[in-house]
Amino acid sequence: MGKFTFRLEILLDIAIHQEEDAKKNLSLCLMELKDGQKQLLICSHKQTYALRSLVEDQKGKISIHKLISNHQYCQYLKEEVENMQRQVILLEEKVEKSREKLHEIMKRRKVLERLKENQHSSHLFEEQKSMQKELDEIATKLFYTSAGGL
Fold this sequence. Notes:
Elements: H1 9-59, H2 64-146
Helix pairs in contact: 1-2
């Protein structure tokens, strides 16, 4: 029996390696996104606390400098939250692109694996066919020699 060799084995190995890399990349992107969301949440809490503090300070006596300072700090936090929201959106887009890339690589790998399986099945079928032909020839020769030869 001849040994089965898949001519596109190198491409399959490359696809498997690319899939592993894409999975790692997706994992890193997801961690970045999670970290960005966490930072956004922290900044949002700071902003909420600062706004509450500003409102509380307005109820009692407060110096104009402290009021201006608190207001500027609230504005700064508002801008930070907006920047982080934009950053989180960009990270979400990065994650989505990474998922799409992984999906495409997985599809390519699966196609190559199916092709390999089909070629292996064809190879086995041809081997069985060849073996059956040899057995038929041996049986025919045995029949003719046992029958006294023709």
